[in-house]
Amino acid sequence: MKLSIEKVYPFISKEDILKLGKEAKDCNVVVENGSGKGNDFLGWVNLPSSVSAEEIADINAAAEKLRAKCEVIVVIGIGGSYLGAKAVIDALSSSFDLLKTDRKNPVMLYAGQNIGEEYLAELLESLKGKQFGLINISKSGTTTEPAIAFRLLKSVLEGNVGKAEAKERIIAVTDAKKGALRKLADQEGYKTFIIPDNVGGRFSVLTPVGLLPIAAAGYDITALLNGASEMEKATASSIEFSENKSEIYAATRNALYRSGKKIEILVNFHPKLHYFGEWWKQLFGESEGKEHKGIFPAAVDFTTDLHSMGQWIQEGERTIFETVISVEKPNKSVVIPTDEANLDGLNFLAGKGVDQVNKMAELGTQIAHVDGGVPNLKISIERINEFNLGQLIYFFERACGISGYMLKVNPFDQPGVEAYKKNMFALLEKPGYEAETKAIKERL
C-alpha cells in the first residue's frame, strides 16, 4: 500500500504537516500504550498479530460446516456488526454472482441493518424453498434491528427444518458471558464465537464478527489477517513519522481540517469498493463526530458519481478534500473492440483495456479537482485481494485512533447513537420508559 499527499501541498505546506508530525506520533503512542480516553476499547490494536492458528481453524471449520448445508447465508447485524464483512465480501465477489448457475460459494444476504418491513418481507419470500443458515452478530442480543430480524428468520428456519437441524445452521457471535443472545445460544446449543469486550463494533472486522462471514463466503481470512498484521507493524509508534502511513494520513487530514476543510470524501474508481466506503464512513464518523467537532465523512463511487456529485465537488463550497483509493491492476481485463462504422467515435480507444480508460479518468479527475480547489490524497493498492484489503482496514483503523486523539475526543465511544434509541423506545411505549413516553407526548 502506498500513500501520496503531494496534491495537498498547494493548499497546506509540507511544513504544516511536519509540524503536526510530533502530535500525530504522540497520539499514536497514546493508542499503543492505552493511556487515553476509551482505553478499554483498544483490543483491536494488536489484534491482527494475536489471532492464533487455532482460532482461524475454528472459524474456518464452522464456516465450512455452514457452507456445506446452506445455499444462502443471512448475516444478521447492524453497523460494525455487518459493514466490515460486507465491505470485504462485496470487494472480493463477482458483481453478478447471483446470475451464476455454477456457484461454488453460498449467496450472502444481510438482515438487521434496517427496520424496513418490505425489505424483511421480500427477504423472507426470497428464502422460500432455499436451504439457508444464519450468522447472528450482536453483543447484547437486544439491539432492535437485528433482534427483530433474528426473531423472524429463526422462526422461519425452525419451521422449515425443525429445531434440531436449525441449531446446526445458526451461529451466534456475541458476548462471552452475558446478554440475551448468549443466554439463548447456551440454551439452544448454537455454535458461538466471542466478540471481545475490548473491541468496539466499528473496529471489529478482524474479529469473528467479520472473519466468520468472510470465511463463510469462501474467502481467505488468513491472508486478510496477514495484510493487517503487516500494516500493524508498519504503523507502530516506533516507525519514523516520515515512513508511518497512518500517522502521515492523520496529520494531513487534521492539518486540512484546521485550515477549514471540514468534509472528507473517500473516492474509489472501482465499484467493488462501494461498501468499503460505507464501512469507512462509520469508522470515522462514529469515532470523531463528538463535542461539535470532527471531519464529516462522505464517500463516492467514480466515475458514476461524477455524473451526479461531480459539479458540486468541482465548483461547490471549498470546504472539502478527497482521499482516493486507487487500484493499480484489475483482476480481470476487457479490451475495447474496433467498430467499422465508428458512430460512437470510440475507435481511438480500440485495443485499449477498459481499466486504462478508467485510470485516465482517475488522473483527469484528480487534476481537475485540484485545479478546482480540492486537496487530494491518494492511497494505492496493487489489486483487490484479501491481503491488500487487510492492509487498508488496519491502516484506517490506526489512523482513526490517532486522528481522534488529535481532535481531543474519545475515538472509541458513541454516546450520540443512544439518543434516537431512547426516543424510539419511548414512542413505542417500551416498559421502563414511561417517563420518557410522557415527556415526548407532551412535545408532540
Please, could you describe this protein's structure?
With 444 residues, the chain is of the alpha/beta class. Helices cover 48% and strands 12% of the residues. The strands form two sheets. The chain has a five-stranded mixed β-sheet, with helices on both faces. A five-stranded parallel β-sheet has the order 3-2-4-5-6, with helices on both faces. The model has no long low-confidence stretch (mean pLDDT 95).
Describe, in short, the structure shown:
The protein has 444 residues and is α/β, with parallel strands linked by helices. The chain has helices spanning 14-19, 21-33, 47-50, 53-69, 83-92, 117-126, 144-168, 180-188, 208-216, 221-234, 245-258, 274-288, 310-315, 354-371, 386-406, 418-427, 434-443, and strands at residues 2-4, 72-76, 107-111, 132-137, 170-174, 191-194, 263-268, 296-301, 320-327, 376-381. The protein starts with a strand and ends with a helix.
Order of helices and strands: EHHHHEHEHEHEHEHHHEHEHEHEHHH
Distance between the termini: 53 Å
Helix content: 40-55%
Dominant shape = globular
Proportion of strand residues: 5-15%
Average pLDDT, rounded to a whole number, is: 95
CA-atom Rg in angstroms:
23 Å
Largest sheet: 5 strands, mixed
Low-confidence blocks of residues: none
Quick one: how many beta strands? 10
Number of helices: 17
Alpha-beta content class:
alpha/beta
Largest sheet, spatial ordering of strands? 1-10-9-7-8
